[in-house]
Amino acid sequence: MTSQAAPAPGPREGDTSTPDRRTPDHEGLVMTGVCLQHGDGSETVQALDDVDLAVRPGELAAIVGPSGAGKSSLLAVAGGLATPDRGTVTVAGIDITAVGARARAKLRREHIGFVFQSGNLIPALTALDQLRLPLRFRPRRARSGRDPMKLLADVGMADKAGRHPHRLSGGERQRVGIARALVTEPSVLLVDEPTAALDRARSHEIVRLLAREAGQHGVAAVMVTHDHDVLEHCDTVYEMVDGRLTALT
Ligand SMILES: Nc1ncnc2c1ncn2[C@@H]1O[C@H](COP(=O)(O)OP(=O)(O)OP(=O)(O)O)[C@@H](O)[C@H]1O
Asked: Nearest 5 degrees, angle CA 243-CA 244-CA 249?
């Protein structure tokens, strides 16, 4: 088992943000002794093998590793989409493995943002409406959320707020996808291969954006990537091999 309490990320160069306004008990993402097996009977795979991971508010953690190592399984468990066989997962101080399916779904809507490979935008909605939608489905007593237009400006998309996804580039779609995940002010952001479809320059921009947003808004962000080029923008780097997680930095 590897144990890695990540250091609090320091301020980045050029970071002029005001301090995060979250409550002091906000604790990011903590996974302890997490095990997950896929399949049953004779064909089982140990996708996660005693995984410990602590990602603090404001930190961007990267997870690299070979295909089939368990990276997607880790994101699924961290996001409450899969229940581990053993271990605990706390998000913003709440143990998501100890609550029922309804409470977990609410917690997901309130505290967890997901970013997928290609943005996963809804074709019929403009960039601005992609951000308005999650605000409409948020639990009643959740945070009020960020202003969609201002957030689009923060990710460099203000001038394209009225465009539909088919009129955006891959990098622009990814920016909108990131903004959509952040609009509800999640405590934890889970990002799956955000640069898979992007060229080198665009990849750096996207990961820099993720690091900046996480740092400025106190989000604990976990990014799975095959792209070793962009690791320089991350606060911590972990490697996953055969379901086991090791800290590289
Ligand atoms: N639903 C499932 N049923 C059975 N086995 C599964 C299932 N999902 C994943 N696995 C297996 O669990 C292991 C971990 O898979 P996972 O998708 O988490 O890996 P990964 O590191 O994300 O891979 P990739 O980089 O290719 O996306 C693999 O051996 C995979 O074949």
From this structure: 130
Tens-place pLDDT, residues 68-127: 999 999 999 999 999 999 999 999 899 999 999 899 998 998 899 999 887 789 999 999
Rg (CA), the chain: 17
Q: From ligand 1's centre to the CA of 184, what distance in Å?
A: 29
Examine the pLDDT at 16 and tell me if it is beyond 60: no
Ligand 1 contacts CB of residue 87 (under 6 A): no
Q: Does 161 fall in a domain?
A: yes
Q: Is residue 239 part of a domain?
A: yes
Counting the structural domains of the chain, the total is 1
Q: Report yes or no on 13 lying in a domain.
A: no
* Whole-angstrom distance, CA of residue 132 vs CA of residue 146: 10
The model carries a pTM of: 0.87
Other CB atoms within a 10 A radius of the CB of residue 80 amount to 23
Q: Is 218 in the pocket of ligand 1 (CB under 6 A)?
A: no
Tens digit of each residue's pLDDT (9 = 90 or more) over 23-60: 344 489 999 999 999 987 788 999 999 999 999 999 99
Decide: 44 in ligand 1 pocket, CB within 6 A. Answer: no
> In terms of residue numbers, what domain contains 130?
29-247
The answer, yes or no, to whether ipTM is higher than 0.90 is yes
For ligand 1, atom 6: residue with the closest CA: 38
CATH number at residue 47: 3.40.50.300
